[in-house]
Fold this protein.
Amino acid sequence: MKLLFPGLCLFVSLTMWITFSVTSCKVSRNRLLGVTLPLEAQKLPEVTGIVQRYRRAMGVCYPLLMLAGVPIVLIPERLPSFYLISMWVWLLITCLLGERLYRRYNRELYSLKQKRGWLMGRQRMVTVDTQVSRMKKTMPVSRLWFLPSLVIAALCPLLVMWNNPAFSDYGWGGAWIPLCLTMVCILTHHITATRPARVYSENSEINRACNFLYQRSWSVCWVVCSLLQSIGGSLLFAFLFLSPEDTNEIWTVLPYLLSIVAMLVTLLYTHDHIRRGQNLLIAAQNAPVYIDEDEYWISGFYNNPNDRHVVVEKRDGTGFTFNLATFWGKAATYASFLVIAGVLLFSSVFLLLLDSRSFSLTVSGNSASVSAPLYGASFSLDQVEEVEALASLPERRRINGASTAAYDLGRYYVSGYGACTLYIYKNNPPYLVIRLPGNTLLLNGKTPEQTREYADLLGGVKSQP
């Protein structure tokens, strides 16, 4: 499982590399590197030179960054905080560098365009063609195509409830992920399907063909992506749920990784298919309508006061972004940044606390307390119903908390004991099982001697299996 996170980071960086250095360097509706250019200017040496320098910069920087990430994978698993923070920093540098390089050459090309006076087309997107608008609802595929994905994704929470009802009170997080991602795909399908019909030409037939290609291709793409992630996510959850002892095996995450790769291929193919098809359709007639909106993208974000849509398609690559000229666009953008920053900060601080503090049991008078980050517990010795000493750990499934090569901390479902709170140093028997009213604790020390001291503080082992 240690390779899962760097694998996802590598996937993100490769996606950005392909998006920035491949798709943005291909002409799409007279746009090159995010700049709208007349046809005669696209082949000029000044323009091709900027594109070639950009490709060379991306071709040097990204391989070097990927090599720089190799030592991070070699960090021992006993230092999860250092490992995770190093991965976050590496991924952040990779994303910022890609964006910075793209923005640098995008502005260089935009400055050349202004210097040469290559202003073209209209300054506002044309969205009115009544003949095409009447037919727009028939272009995307029906939302009923998402039913198979919904059924497959719903199997995860059903599996939790069916396999063991006691676990269902705590296992909703992982169980709901495939279903939530399916809903994201449905929402993206809705955004695509409700996009106003755009005008690409003075010929309504060309407009109909371009809009049909866009609507049908993207709607099918989101259905396929939804199906892929629901299958991959459900298989991953089933493997981790039914075979918790195999969570370190690569085969448990392989279906999910394959589904992610398949989704990436689907997205890139759809984007390229639409780009090629629309370019051919527009080039086949003599009355194209070009829209020059470069000034609204030059900051790196979309900020168009003439467009009241909150969600718009990205100019390069695939996906959507927000219009900062609208209130909800600003709110969604800032909220996204805050959520990402919050997740990074919480996960890093949480693991730093785990690495810097140890689990310990102390007894004062008739009161006992377990010290541990975020999962501390206290109880009266009179509440202790039973204490067992186990030579090995039973089968367990993590509900929440942390699990590394060195320890298990948090809420787990333990075979034979139900939902428990674990304070376990792995591969260090014996392990104490402390039964309390409404809860069960599994605890040990860093040494067998320390564990026996804990047992004596609790009044000794009252039950020996």
About this structure: The longest helix spans residues 204-242. The mean pLDDT is 80. The two ends are 32 Å apart (CA to CA).
